[in-house]
Amino acid sequence: MKGKIILNLAMSLDGYIVDNNGNYDWIRGDGDESLNTVEQYELFGLIERYDYIVMGYTSFIEFGQDEHWKNKKLIVATHEKLNNTENTTFVSEELIPLTKRLRDQGHMIWLFGGSLLTDNYIKVNEVDQYEVAIIPIILGNGKRLFLDDNPKIKLHLKNYTINEGIPLLIYTKRGSHE
Question: Which H or E run contains 144?
Answer without folding.
Answer: strand 143-144
